[in-house]
Design a protein that fits this description.
single chain, alpha+beta, two-stranded antiparallel ribbon, 4 helices
Length: 103
């Protein structure tokens, strides 16, 4: 399949990506990832190995599009839970005194 990553055309195949990633140890996933074989890799690592380009030259979205078209499973980051509502100083003082704070 022909795809463009970082303004350069590449002919990628599923078997070619599998061969390129064979023996490559996955890095820690901090963003989007792609499942290749039984392992999950960061998309930027896959893009670097497959295209032999610097990671700064392409976006994660370009690699995700290409890997999705080839039939690989791509995952985003799990949703981050919203931070708990911090009590204001009045509520905190009331809680320390044992009284219920007015809401």
């Amino acid at each position: 399949m022909r795809c463009v990553i970082a303004r350069f055309p590449f002919e990628l195949t599923k078997s070619g990506v599998l061969d390129a990633m064979k023996g490559v140890k996955p890095e820690e996933i901090t963003g989007e990832s792609v499942v290749i074989g039984r392992r999950a890799y960061p998309v930027k690592q896959v893009g670097q190995v497959v295209t032999r380009q610097d990671r700064r030259d392409f976006t994660a979205g370009e690699v995700v599009r290409a890997m999705t078209k080839l039939g690989f499973t791509c995952r985003g980051l799990p949703p981050v839970a919203a931070p708990a509502h911090a009590p204001d100083p009045f509520q905190r003082a009331s809680a320390m005194l044992g009284a219920s704070a007015a809401a």
